[in-house]
Amino acid sequence: MNAVFIAVAVLLIVLIIGVPIPLAFFASTLSIVYFGGYDYSFLLPYGYNKASSIILTAIPLFILAGSLMEKGGIGERLVNLVEIFVGRIKGGLGAVMVISCALFGAISGSGMATLSCIGSIMLPRMYAAGYPRGHCAALISSASLLGLLIPPSLNMILFAWIGGQSVLASFMATVVPGIILICLLSLVNIFLLRKNNNIILTDHMPPSEWVKTLGKRTKSAIPALVAPIIILGGIYGGKMTPTEAAAIAVFYSVPVGWFIYKGLNKDSIKESLLSAGTTAGVIMIMLFSVMILSRLYVMENVPMMILNAMTAVTEDTKILILMVNLFLIIIGMIMDDTSAILLTTPIILPVVISLGIDPVQYAAIMGVNLGLGCVTPPCAPFLYLGSRVGGAPINEMLKPTLWFILFAWIPTLIITTYVPEVSLFLPRIMGLI
Fold first, then answer.
1. N or C: which end of the chain has fewer CB within 10 A?
2. Rounded to whole angstroms, what are the CA distances from 300 to 2, 187, 305, 361?
């Protein structure tokens, strides 16, 4: 008991003073081993065995695929295609950005890659069309997190691996919540901009010219659209594992980006490889530390301690689920999404199962919660990243961000939490649960 409190205190202290998250987890692990009197000799093989899973190979591969697609011009063709449908609507470019984030998230599986790629393409267009800078940066910060929900999501791979769940079922659980969030973000964006007279709409096209332009952009976007079809079709059709699909995505991205869109070259490929390798190294160090730490938490009976503390307040299941949601939002505010999933899944998953929540539904609840936490001040890691990418001051982003939180994120979270079929419908009809 005392060792757990000391470990949590160490984790919070080192995070506050700015120690990198992988090292912070390692420091917390060492403290609980020392003060709990554990023999570390059995913990090291346990951490190694957990971190050596073949499914984790999908993570660096999807990161690499996302980087190659960003530099290869695939994202830009997707944006051009979506833009022709809603460019004449006030706020339409914002909807284009949201939908493009969803499409690119379905290829890369990464919120960070989505933000950097779609943000670099869409934000200059929106600024030139008179869109408020703070509004645009706030919207891309929220929309890029669709990569947490639209499969294949790297975080759902991690959740399924840690929680012992089906990767495909976890993927499918987040599809409908992701679609709900896409619709709500687009509608709130259009509502906020309905009276903005500074926005320049795209030129009106005669029907014949519109059809001709649509044909050209569709033809140009076909290689980009084939990528999600191959990746998602292979996974959902049972023809490929997520790891194999990630490898296919990498091999597909190189010729498309190099020969068709001509955005890739030797330098950009080298840069993508270095970036993916660095990210994978950080994640593996973090995985090793967190797996040992979570094992120690279970040995110290932390999940039952949390459940007992919650039920001491109330035995109403709906309120208990609300408490779990609040806890996940807070975690999402102070940690990046990957770290939050690694730390909370071994602790919270047994708690929610005891409350009668299907673990596959919890995958969707957790995805929405962590996305919400990533844009909720004061920490809001994606909000600050969006500020840097969009060149917008945080104070200009706060008001639109609050609108997106209140009328897009929170309604999606409420529906996902209290209407189980939203997340369980697709896994059930596919026979996954």
1. N
2. 10, 47, 9, 27
